[in-house]
């Protein structure tokens, strides 16, 4: 196992996932961006010995993108499985990342997979696949930053066991930075403290709070030789907001926690 596979647990999510897997139930991971959802699914794939097939959802995603389509290759028309079909056939964990980005009609294909039927209907191939026991459907979404236009239907959400995720407690988040970027405990703790202050101010600022991902990025900059404030500026503060006044406020918070001078 490399450091890139390391997952720091944050409560009962591993247990919840294992129960859902044992009972062949689909899981919905909720939580802010960069809090470890993808890392968690990869970790569970390793733990359960299942391949994880990830699909990043977006506006234009069609059910054919999920299921597959007929394609012309060398004059022949052949059916090519999409990633969802592959996952069902091989009994993998299928991870639909940011599922809220997909249109409702594209997701309708999941209904028969997320109830007692556990089947996938391949419309154009006229075939019904039965998912093996090891197949699992996992979706993720960030409920805090949805727009009113984009939300999951309650009926869709109720098909899943919800596993709520959030940032790790400060000490553990600092350990992630040390493991992922190789920085010392003191640097890691200062970055985490800086993030905690910004997350607390987040209500007033109304932006997506700084994620563990941005802290790892800053820690890697520091490991590469950047001073703390420069690293924070590039990797944490600037990605949060392009509003000048907000940025000044954030910078003030950062200077209270970190050393160095901004580039
Ligand atoms: N619990 C955790 N254990 C280990 N690393 C983590 C954890 N949470 C976040 N990270 C770090 O933050 C990065 C972003 O996490 P990721 O799983 O991609 O977030 P999400 O999918 O929620 O947006 C990871 O690449 C990893 O470096
Ligand atoms: Mg992710």
Give an overview in words.
Belongs to the CbbQ/NirQ/NorQ/GpvN family. Keywords: ATP-binding, Nucleotide-binding. The chain has two domains: 162 residues, P-loop containing nucleotide triphosphate hydrolases (Rossmann fold); 88 residues. With 263 residues, the protein is an alpha/beta fold. The strands form three sheets. A five-stranded parallel beta sheet has the order 2-5-8-1-9, with helices on both faces. It contains eleven helices and nine strands. α7 crosses α8, α7 crosses α9 and α9 packs antiparallel against α10. Helix content is 44%, strand content 17%. The protein starts with 12 loop residues before the first helix and ends in a 6-residue tail after the last helix. A hairpin with a 2-residue loop joins β3 and β4. It binds adenosine-5'-diphosphate and magnesium ion. The site of adenosine-5'-diphosphate has 17 residues, from α2, α7 and α9.
Order of helices and strands: HEHEHEEHEHEEEHEHHHHH
- How large is the radius of gyration? 21 Å
Question: What count of helical segments does DSSP give?
Answer: 11
Q: What is the straight-line distance between the termini? A: 37 Å
Report the strand count.
9
State the helical fraction. 40-55%
Q: Can you tell me the overall shape?
A: elongated
Q: State the low-pLDDT regions, or none.
A: none
CATH class annotation of the largest domain:
Alpha Beta
Number of domains: 2
Give the strand order of the largest sheet, numbering strands 1, 2, ... along the chain.
2-5-8-1-9
CATH topology of the largest domain: Rossmann fold
Organism: Gordonia amarae NBRC 15530
Protein name: AAA family ATPase
Keywords: ATP-binding, Nucleotide-binding
InterPro entries: ATPase_dyneun-rel_AAA (IPR011704), CbbQ/NirQ/NorQ/GpvN (IPR050764), CbbQ_C (IPR013615), P-loop_NTPase (IPR027417)
